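[step 3/7] fold_predict: job queued, chain A
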Amino acid sequence: MTKIACIGSGNMGFTLMAGIGQSGKNTKIKIGITDPDTEKAQITAEAIGADIFNSNAKAAEKAAYIFLAVKPRVMKEVLEEITPVIQKRLTGGNAPVLISMAAGWTIAEIQAIAGNETPVARIMPNTPALVSEGVTALAVSPQVSAIKAAELETLLEEAGEVDRIEERYFNAITGLSGSGSAFVYMFIDALADGGVLVGLPRNKAMYYAAQTVLGATAMVMETGLQPSQLKDMVCSPGGTTITGVAALEAGAFKSTVMQAVNAAWKRAQELTDNGN
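[step 4/7] structure written:
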């Protein structure tokens, strides 16, 4: 059985652990969590079938993989708390892999506190991991063995797709994928509001909006065609769709979305440049 500890039970920690553990149904994985908010930890543990650790140091004692699901501003404090345990295990030849999902914290910065020989992985998941449809970017330090890296990738695949990528791209991925699901939710909400505006009941408008985005996504992934090509296939001369596209372009739709990704990337870059 693979033992996992998750330090932090906020939205992303909960989402990823629920995806990996399939809400307690994956009997090959044992998850334990810790959080300074004991009530939140209890709620999360019950929801995903996890155990609760009474301290971060305790969480670090036996788990093969330790997920650091904490805000960037408290990462240093958490690392300093668990480092003595990590170093003891490293000396004993049983070092865990630290997995950070904190924006702005590089592998080198984590190792500067936890120890240069500590195996560290960096990930950037997104919220569809909750329903095993997420995408997680993954980079690992040289200290993570090929076997451990492969096992970690298999664990993360329980929550969706996994992409091994160079760490230098992580701030861009944070802006596009890490933040991007929120932008898509806003688009679905806007589509549904548009449906209500033209007379659909709210529940029907939301159903058609969400299913339309789901279907369009499948078309992009499965046909191999560019989104612009698929868009052109829907736009008949003088028809309803091209009229709607013109309205979106009048509102600088594409430029606005690009600037949203750019703004999120800039914030991730600030967190990196300013030492979190």
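[step 5/7] annotate
The beta strands are 2-7, 29-34, 51-52, 65-68, 97-100, 120-124, 134-140, 160-164.
The longest helix spans residues 202-223.
exit 0
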